[in-house]
Amino acid sequence: MRLIIPVSVVEFGGTGQGVLLLHGLMSRAAAWWPVAQWLRPFGRVVAVDQRGHGRNPQRGPFRTEDFVRDAAAAIEDLDLGPAVVIGHSMGGLHAWCLAATRPDLVRAIVVEDFAPDNRGRTVDEWKWLFDAWPVPFQSVAHVTSFFGDPVFAEYFEEREDGWHLIASLDDLYEIAAEWGTRAYWDLIDEVRCPSLVIEAGRGGQLPGQMVEAARRSRGQYLYVPEAGHVVHASAPWVYRGAVEAFLSTSISPV
């Protein structure tokens, strides 16, 4: 079994059953801090930097299966299982796939704003946005002003010439490129644990897919019309209420 590297793990506190948080593309474990504060009554809350992100030194390969194996190893090595797995965007995809392939490790999942079938879409549709960033940013305030949300400050670090994204853009493009080549319906059909699927009204996902994924996995579904892609940051009280209600009925708080 591969031991999880301590520098890429954030222990947020709590005791009992494991709650594993999986961030989205470009993000990092520490960005879950606001959510982790109210999750602690439900167990021991842990987030990990996924490969290619944060302080995790592991780069490629970047297949979905590699990320899922990493998440499984985190649950096993940190003695979290069976865990509640909560994922945003890319992390939501990994939560679905982990629940499908390692049901012994997963008690319940929350998937936030990821469409399971992006075949035909390419990174060129949004890569130009990243290329237009005024890198390096001059300060944390510059980062938050540019993106319009303080959560983005967590994704950057200060270097000699200013503030840079911690993750490598080339790595991010490689990770996302896979999503345009495959669909994940077969794995979603295999999910048997309780699940909650949360879709952002302003998140840009392909319409109808997330509600269909919830139906196929026999899960709950919530559409948040006012929310941007990071629902837990743009509509935090709606997100919190939905997740707390789901966990309260799906698992027992400790």
Automatic annotation (TrEMBL):
Q: Which UniProt keywords apply?
A: Hydrolase
Gene3D superfamilies in alphabetical order: alpha/beta hydrolase (3.40.50.1820)
The family database entries (InterPro entries) matched by this protein are listed as: AB_hydrolase_1, AB_hydrolase_fold, Carboxylesterase_BioH
MF terms from GO for this chain are: hydrolase activity
Pfam families cross-referenced by the UniProt entry: Abhydrolase_6
Where are the bilayer-spanning segments? none
The organism sits in which domain of life?
A: Bacteria
Question: Has the keyword Repeat been applied to this entry?
Answer: no
Q: Which residues form the AB hydrolase-1 domain?
A: 19-236
* PANTHER family with a match to the protein in the record: HYDROLASE ALPHA/BETA FOLD FAMILY, PEROXISOMAL MEMBRANE PROTEIN LPX1
Name the UniProt record assigns to this protein = Alpha/beta hydrolase
Source organism (scientific name): Lentzea indica
Please name the taxonomic classification of the source: Bacteria, Bacillati, Actinomycetota, Actinomycetes, Pseudonocardiales
